[in-house]
Amino acid sequence: MHGWFQYMRSGDEKPKVTRQLLLRVLSYARGYWWHIAGMLFTILLTTGISLLTPLIFRNMIDVVIPAKDTNRLILLGVALLLIPAIEGGINVIQRRLNATVGEGVIYDLRSSLFARLQRMSLRFFTNTKVGELMSRLNNDVVGAQNAISNTIVNIVTNFIEAVALIAVMLTLEWRLTIVSVLILPLFIIAAQRLGKVLRDIAREAMDHNAKMNAHMNETLNIGGALLVKLFGRANEEEKRFRERAANVRDIGIRRAVVGSTFFVIFGLVSAVGTALVYGLGGYYVITDVFTVGTIVAFGAYLGQLYGALQGLAGAPVEFSTSMVSFERVFEVIDLPQDIAERDGAPALGEVRGELEFDHVTFNYSVDESKLLKDVKRYGRHEDVAAVLSLTEKKKKDDEPASDSGEADSTSQAREVALEDISFAARLGQLVALVGPSGAGKTTLTYLIPRLYDPTDGVIRIDGRDLREVTLDSLSSAIGMVTQETYLFHDTVRTNLTYAKTDATQAEIESAAKAANIHNFIVDLTDGYDTIVGERGYRLSGGEKQRIALARVILKNPRILVLDEATSSLDSESESLIQDALKRVMAGRTSIVIAHRLSTILAANLILVMDRGRIVERGTHEQLLATGGLYSQLYETQFKREKVL
Question: Whose CB has fewer CB within 10 Å in the chain, the N or C terminal residue?
Fold first, then answer.
């Protein structure tokens, strides 16, 4: 075999599990050394106790029974009962120690992984499949835990047992021991051949399971279920699921059959050794070289030895799979942060609310070194994109979300999302962003809370570069309401207090009243304790937007960033939201993607954007007088609102 510290892939590639990787894996066991020491002690103890039974049989056959010593026979019989009882008790203790280590490693890995993901930028999540992250948090973490709590423990146990057995067997009869270990090459050959087949099947099974789980994830969430029903595709989706489930079934059957074959072959190899030992041993008994008790004891040891050797032969398959899981977990933990916080960065402190863009340029180019890499899976001849989404790496469309309700007379596709953006929003001012869909408005707002960093230029709050202050203090100073409101599948209260976890009931109700949503909430069956459903689907668009506004009011930020999209709302909801917006923006510096004339007329500064640039700026009257793009937008989008 090519060694326990090497795993095999389909084809000729045989990348090694490095010493550095092994040391890092073992570092996760550092906090559990006493538990591991206890496990090793119990392993030695059970191994030693298990060696006594064949010796008792030998003594019974060779000494006690021929001597007709009834008292000693009873004592040995009691010993045969006590040995498995003691072993069972020790095994329970060992299992507890093992579970403590295993579950502790899972906890540590998941915590590290989740903490890392919380610090990744929005760019990372827009280029990463959610299903892959879930796989790493669940399947890969469990696979990695298996390396420490099961695989390594089994290797140590089998190794200690094999060494102890061979030592005892040599003291009993060295010639039979040599015959016993002569079949070791057969174990190695069988492990090489069948181990690779089982590994490939296991990887193929993982792949089929991943496809089935991905299909369930896509069709059983609220959005996917709604789409299936709207297009009447339930039968087609059932057919697709059956195909994927059938693949899982078939590979499971194949795995079971090959696994059984694996153990049958090991059994046959063991039978060869057993036949040789008993054949030669029988000859020695006939020729009075040793006693019948010796060959019986030797046969018992032989069964234990072959069991240990079988475990050692299969260990590389389990070990290599566990190492792959560790590699996949470490890959996430080791990813560099796209939006990094400078060491020793100070907090913003008391924020006045002055915002400045100084020659800011930005594009959505993806640095692949900061994304998860493609993963090669066993049993496949092509690379599988583990994380990268099916979207193009270089986005032609600069916006992560389109600005609905706006006419798009010319194509906004381009390489640079924002180019040379400069403006200042003074304390308490309202800055309105207008322009065609895809002009860069949403992108501009995403730079303010550092969801992305500028490619060039500087963004400042109160004269301080955003990259020089802590992310938490920046988040505290900025409140953002996006066009697509996201609510957790939880109570209204929980969704509101996400902005301020220690908010009192009075503060919650005050924020809800300011957002014109309090009366609606109290009329619900459970009031503020009503469950809003998956992504808030039990609420209307206007209700979700008002809850989002209440959440921002509760946060009480000095700078407000919002998309004022109301095109999909009924007139009553729109009126309530507009009234709430006036309260929200009062006394705050506000950057608003404006969709209504009333907001534009109230703005201290209007920025007209086109193809990632600010092409016009000024007040409503000033911009109308220039007769440029703003005038066109006014005639096509805003003027009819005034007429109505």
Answer: C
Residue 281's domain comprises 174-289
pTM of the model: 0.69
Say if residues 116 and 333 touch (Cβ distance below 8 Å). yes
Report if residue 522 sits inside a domain: no
d(CA 205, CA 408): 48
CATH number for the domain spanning 40: value is 1.20.1560.10
Does residue 583 sit in the same domain as residue 599?
yes
Residue 389 structure tokens:
């989404």
Cα distances from 635 to residues 538, 622, 628, in angstroms, run 37, 15, 11
Helices (H), 586-626: 597-602, 620-626
> Is there a single domain that holds both residue 129 and residue 277?
no
Same-domain pairing of 164 and 266: no
pLDDT in the model for residue 486? 80
Is 265 among the domain residues? yes
Query: To which residue do tokens 């207008």 refer?
Result: 434
Angstrom distances, CA of residue 70 to CA of 65, 75, 76, 78, 280:
8, 9, 10, 12, 32
Rounded CA-CA distance 514/554 in Å is 10
CATH number at 618 reads: 3.40.50.300
A 10 A CB-CB count for 510 gives: 16
Contact assessment for residue 486 and residue 535, using Cβ atoms and an 8 Å cutoff: yes
Instruction: Indicate whether 422 and 568 sit together in one domain.
Output: yes
- Measure Cα distances from 131 to 138, 142, 214 in Å: 10, 16, 7
**Strand order across the beta sheet in which 613-618 lies:** 478-481, 559-563, 589-593, 430-434, 605-610, 613-618
Could you give the C-alpha distances from 515 to 55, 365, 500, in angstroms and in order? 83, 38, 16
- Long-range contact list for 534-537, CB < 8 A, 24+ apart? 534/221, 534/222, 534/489, 535/222, 535/223, 535/486, 535/487, 535/489, 536/485, 536/486, 536/487, 536/495, 537/222
**539 is a domain residue:** no
> What confidence score (pLDDT) does residue 472 get?
87
Instruction: Tell me how many domains the chain contains.
Output: 3
Burial code (b: 16+ CB inside 10 Å, e: under 16) for 280-314 equals bbeebbeeeebbebbbbbbbbbbebbbbbbbbbbb
Complete DSSP assignment for 112-163: HHHHHHHTS-HHHHHTS-HHHHHHIIIIIHHHHHHIIIIIHHHHHHHHHHHH
- Sequence letter at residue 440: G
**Which residue ranges in the chain fall short of pLDDT 70?**
1-17, 131, 187, 191-192, 195, 199, 226, 314, 316-317, 320-321, 365-414, 535, 565-574, 638-644
Q: Which pLDDT belongs to residue 273?
A: 78
Pairing of strands 605-610, 430-434: parallel
